[in-house]
Write a structure and sequence with these properties.
231 residues, Thrombin, subunit H, six-stranded antiparallel β-barrel, 16 strands, six-stranded antiparallel beta barrel, mainly beta
Length: 231
């Protein structure tokens, strides 16, 4: 069981769950920064079959990242290996079914928040307001926290746009232009900070942020496992 701190409250966000992907559901696949979409054609205790994807990136032995939206409106994410092809009536790729301990379930109302120190640009919506660069502190699919400069004029409920660079595996960078609402402006350790909410961002951008958080979480888990082995 994995516990994540969200808004200062310990919430059981991620847990070891049996994979509940169903035949006919859409599965999103990533490999070497390339993204694909396919349909699940069969599910067994050992494998998941998907409609064949015509790409040199999808080959036997390749590691891929997958996610889908479950019937419970939660997002399920996992990594797996392409085991080969299946010559059936509908040509398919066969994916190794992941262990339940390697499947992350994210409730859409409880986005996991990860530490993320990134250089970002904030664009207030007021005509007289000037944009400024600053540092983010954390981010989730639902919002982010950032440092405010001394001369800022942001107030609660202000609308802003934020240019955020998301650094993924394979040295890929996605620049997301996100709309946000200022939820709270506060001081901590003598530093002005703000909490923002992504109330109206495009779903494709939210998925990018969730994917970023997912990769950060996987990286953290790998490091923890490495330290356990070394100790």
């Amino acid at each position: 069981m994995v516990f994540i701190t969200f808004k200062m409250v310990s919430i059981r966000l991620y847990k070891e769950v049996a994979l509940v992907v169903l035949v006919g559901e859409t599965l999103f696949i990533e490999q070497e920064s390339k993204r694909f979409r396919s349909k699940v054609t069969d599910v067994t205790e050992e494998s998941i079959s998907i409609q064949e994807i015509s790409s040199s990136h999808i080959q036997k032995g390749k590691k891929v990242k997958c996610w889908y939206l479950g019937k419970d409106q939660a997002i399920y994410l996992f990594e797996t290996i392409i085991q080969g092809k299946e010559a059936t009536k509908v040509p398919s790729h066969i994916l190794k079914r992941p262990l339940s301990s390697n499947v992350l379930r994210v409730q859409r109302r409880h986005y996991v928040r990860v530490d993320a120190m990134m250089d970002i640009v904030v664009y207030p919506t007021g005509e007289q307001e000037e944009s400024f660069t600053t540092l983010s502190l954390d981010i989730s699919g639902g919002g982010m926290k950032l440092v405010l400069p001394d001369n800022h004029t942001l107030k609660e409920d202000n609308e802003v746009r934020i240019l955020v660079p998301l650094y993924f595996d394979q040295e890929e960078v996605e620049y997301c232009d996100l709309s946000a609402r200022v939820v709270r402006v506060f001081f901590h350790d003598g530093i002005a900070k703000a909490s923002l909410s992504f109330d109206n961002i495009a779903e494709k951008d939210r998925q990018k942020v969730i994917r970023y958080c997912y990769e950060r979480q996987l990286m953290k888990r790998r490091k923890e496992k490495t330290l356990q082995i070394e100790n």
